[in-house]
Amino acid sequence: MQLPLMPPIAPMLSRAVEELPIGADLFYEPKWDGFRGIVFRDGDEVEIGSRKERPLTRYFPELVDALRDKLPTRCVVDGEIVIATDRGLDFEALQMRLHPADSRVRKLAASTPASFVAFDLLAVGDDDLTPLPFAERRQALEGALAGDGPPVLVTPVTSEVGVALDWFTRFEGAGLDGVMAKPGHLPYRPNERVMFKVKHRRTADCVVAGFRRHRRDDGIGSLLLGLFDDEGMLHHVGVASSFTAKRRAELVAELAPYRDNALDGHPWRDWAEAATPASGGRMPGGVSRWNAGKDLSWEPVRLELVAEVGFEQLQNQRFRHSARLLRWRVDRDPVSCTFDQLDVAIPYELREVFALRG
């Protein structure tokens, strides 16, 4: 492989902002919920690099063939690997694709095929385009992928803030988790947070059912959160984490009153005492699918503490990312912490996203 830019390349990054920036020089795109991937193609050779600059190629064999068919013969393209279903984007199915067994990878490639959404062109032929402003790179991308079609697509773009705000609301049901804003004059700057992202943010009141210790000290590393379903079963919906060292120590004292006899009648007791839970609800723990050596042991607390947490997205009745602890809700009864409180986005077909590509 001989290209103007050779792998690995660290992708250009974004920083979170609370409100969508407004400016004459800004371009807006939907924010895709998948795996970031930079594709290098030189003839029949195709390599897909990840955000961590590690190859993803072997995990998506069906994309390799599609990229050979759709991309220019020699190019470097930045984009996102996603799995689209009739219910929207499915990140959990995407995670399942990172499997060590080649036979499993091939089976999943057939049953849950991935797509590649292109949003930047870094090189074409012998030309390095990274010094060019984004507006010119975008124009070159549209020219290079003029015949795009599933499973290789070009992301929609607009310079109208009203359209971007509309996307922010309507596209969430398709699994997109916000809107990106990119300055039109911006050259491609690897590993720098020079773009902007606005993500959906919500709150929920959850039962604190347990905690995990932080790997570096004896403080609280994460809180295990639960919500009750209509039958009264407590499901593990995610964790609240990212505490400072000071806050980790404070949480030890704050949780201490709830630790005595915590396993008595605890709905997750089966999992706490064995690797496999006996009942059918979603529970924490077991061996990590991605890191067999990772310690997922946890300690229970009595189901008396309610935490208000901030979260960005819900997928399959689980927080897509770690939640943020906002405050304790001493006024809330834990049994009132149900799924009913969650604002679920109305499903929106992904084909509508691409119908609006500008």
> Tell me about the biggest sheet?
6 strands, mixed
| Multimerization status | single chain
Quick one: overall form?
A: elongated
Output the CATH homologous superfamily of the largest domain. Answer: DNA ligase/mRNA capping enzyme
Q: What's the CATH architecture name of the largest domain?
A: 2-Layer Sandwich
Structural class: alpha+beta
Notes on the structure:
The chain is α+β, with helices and mostly antiparallel strands. It has 2 domains: about 15-200, 2-Layer Sandwich (D-amino Acid Aminotransferase, Chain A, domain 1); about 200-340, OB fold (Dihydrolipoamide Acetyltransferase, E2P) (Beta Barrel). About 20% of the residues lie in helices and about 30% in strands. It has 8 helices and 18 strands. A hairpin with a 2-residue loop joins β3 (about 35-40) and β4. The model is unreliable at about 275-280 and about 285-295 (pLDDT under 50).
